[in-house]
Amino acid sequence: xxxxxxxxxxxxxxxxxxxxxxxxxxxxxxxxxxxxxxxxxxxxxxxxxxxxxxxxxxxxxxxxxxxxxxxxxxxxxxxxxxxxxxxxxxxxxxxxxxxxxxxxxxxxxxxxxxxxxxxxxxxxxxxxxxxxxxxxxxxxxxxxxxxxxxxx
Amino acid sequence: xxxxxxxxxxxxxxxxxxxxxxxxxxxxxxxxxxxxxxxxxxxxxxxxxxxxxxxxxxxxxxxxxxxxxxxxxxxxxxxxxxxxxxxxxxxxxxxxxx
Lengths: 152, 98
Description:
The complex is a heterodimer of chains A (152) and B (98).
Chain A lengths: L17 H15 L1 H4 L3 H4 L3 H23 L7 H23 L22 E3 L5 E3 H5 L4 E5 L5
Chain B lengths: L1 E6 L3 H11 L5 E3 L4 H5 L3 E2 L9 E2 L2 E5 L5 E6 L9 H11 L6
Parallel strand pairs in B: 1-2
Antiparallel strand pairs in B: 3-4, 5-6
């Protein structure tokens, strides 16, 4: 430290490199807001908002990494930037696997009743506890049966 | 034409949702998934805590009890909630109801 007079302080405090931190937070947001956006039809069928957040977060992380490795005397972040970037890649891989593979694994339902077959009988309680049989629903114009996953 | 929605949700859960959403059609509780199995629309382990639930599916059954239309969605991310299936069915049938 302290070189010949005429020079100012050389060892400046390095900057914290906010794109790395903000980028990582946005990546986490992209992952953890999936359930929230899945409530709305517009964002449910294809999670474009979450993919967009991943994109922005990763871009910011890359900006931060370029600064950290390009000008390490000015910017911090070689270590934690690399760590966050690696974690983000794993999170994105996990997310993409879930969205593009796991959710498409729908059971075959090969034995489901086909057009022309008789619909299987049943008798189930409705929301007031009253038993409803298939026969109760069929007249006069038949019935639509909607099987759904449940409101959980 | 009648409509009934079937899931593994309990009568209590269905009661709460019917009130909240002002449904006029029955929400039927198939808590042990026996009817879901009978229609082969079971999705093993897909529910909370790996519970067995139904995969989204719609059947139109005519007055004689014969299936006339089947819709098995191929992507679970498209969560078939009853109200959406109804509007799709309504559109397909040209809006005839009851």
